[in-house]
Amino acid sequence: MIKADRIVRTTCPYCGVGCQIDLHIVDDHIVEVTAPFDQPPNFGRLCVKGRFGTDFVHHPSRLRMPLIRRKLGTPRQQATIDGFRTASWDEALDLVASHFAEIKRKHGADAIATTCSAKATNEDNYLFQKYVRAVLGTNNCDHCARLCHAGSVAGLQLALGSAAMSNSVAEMLDLDTFLITGSNTAETHPVISLFLKKAVQQGGAKLIVADPRATEMTKFATIWLRHRAGTDVALFQSMANVIVTEKLYDLDFVNKRTEGFSAYAKAIQRYTPEWAEKITGVRAVDIRRAARMYAKASVAAIYWGMGISQSTHGTQNTLSLANLALLCGHLGKAGGGVNPLRGQNNVQGASDMGGLPNVFPGYARVDDPEAQAHYSAAWGSALLNPTPGLTVTEMVDGACSGAIQAFYIMGENPLMSEPHLAHARHRFENLPFLVHQDIFFNETSAYADVILPALSFAEKDGTFTNTDRQVQRVRKALPAPGQARPDWQIIADLGRRTEKALGMTRSAGWSYNHPAEIWAEIASLTPNFAGISYQRIDREGGIPWPCPTPEHPGTPYLFAESFPRGKGKFHALEYELAPEEPDAEYPFILSTGRVLYHWHGGTLTRRSMLDKVYPQATVEIHPDDAAKLGIQEGDMVRVRSRRGAIEVKALVTGRSPRGTVFVPFHFAEAAANELTIDAIDPIAKIPGYKICGVQVEALGA
Ligand code: SF4
Question: Considering only CA atoms, which residue is closest to atom 6 of ligand 1?
């Protein structure tokens, strides 16, 4: 066993569970990762990514110097890193500041688009949106929450007025009854799945899984509702129909804490289980069993993932789940709640920090005069832009129409994560100016004009906020590679330079010596975080917001007394088809998602030892479909949609139902998003990544 020079406690950089990890360091290298047994949320548990996947920080291809494209101008072609030259920080940041200032003067502030990052710290994200709002003067600031849980956010805001996971991970051990839908929890939130399995196996909890795909969690289910992909609204509305028809709802809760029940109860009369059986393929008898199980529980929780939200009906899907919770009064109690399992390590925090086009930090609306005055005073601005900005999907569209003249992207990789990638690449080719700030050269860097090298989680201080709202520390364990800098320092430097280039007489304030000072500014401006400090986290561990005072213990579950919108609101919903269903030419449904060994666009895990375990893109296909097409396990196949084609290795398995194929989205050389459709949910603006039509062709061994 190697003895570490030092051990640094920090937070896993991968998923929203936010596991606490100890990095064992020898000669400035991570040689081992362990987990403390006494610390929530993971209590000693880690998945393979946290345990073995942090070696990406030592990868030789880390960005170490600012880079500037050798031939600036549009239309530009995709370039390798050789298409760039190294530059000093002064040259690179002055170039960015002067371009942004010029574009703002010529085209207006709203011609600049930006994305902050769900992988960066709260402090990085807070400073980023402060720069965008107070200096650039636009609300065009969004991030990948748009692409993973915008449907959940929009739906929960409409129903309750708050979009965060309502209840804590710690409560999972004592669950009575719970519903999981659209979440392959064992692969996407592996440590959470351990608690959920334990609740079933040791605690005797009842589990309803609603999912078209067989997952690890379906093995633990009391009832598995295997509905057809895209029929979520029909399924959950019919469960509500049973609950109302059989008078299983919580009348007291409905009367005291909700509005709109009468109209809702009337609207769902037609959604009988028999009607839903025809739509969903789930037997009416099973719908009734599930509805009764959920309604009769003393308290029941709902957990969901991107299978619900990444849909052109993501808002409606979420509302159908919120309706169930409101009917049965399973809110405002330990062990209950509505719980979207957030994907990225700090997607909750990036949203909390105002990394969204319509809200300031703490979710105060940008068009609210009181919030305007509050943040204008804090950031030295005469007036902040009151017009909500563009979502990331609208920004990419704007790059095509000319409405967007510059794009500043921090720590995101839209040229892996956008749907219909061929179209997205075309838009980026015609974008006049693109700045990419990241730790690796990736698919988006290839279109950049300027690349700014940032630090990874292991090389900087800060905080992440996990899926159950715990603000946890990120601690510097390693020196910076080359001249790379923490995001917050890059932004602060750029802030000063852009103010100068614009001739601004007031400064938003960029003099920070350490992220703790940025956190103190956040806490001073945002009541939810007022009681949280670095000293307190170091002493007590993660603290769940809201935490309004230093004496407040934090809030493990929300809505005990009321909802942020006052009363919870029922929404009558219509079941609608996906925009592209399978047909004779493209007869299979394509669904996309994650596998255990990889993370999102693969920027990190493809540069880790995990890539040796799962090195190649795959497609899951049902044995009956494979036999018809002459496909054997391990054969190469071509999957083609109306938008593109990829070649992947076949996994012949009954996990996905007949007529559906599943492709993970981690592999740039066979990117699932070459195939996906760019139709979006009209409210949440999230693309429908989970359903489009494809054809499958055998290519042989
Ligand atoms: Fe990291 Fe998530 Fe795995 Fe925990 S469950 S170790 S946070 S990837």
Answer: 50
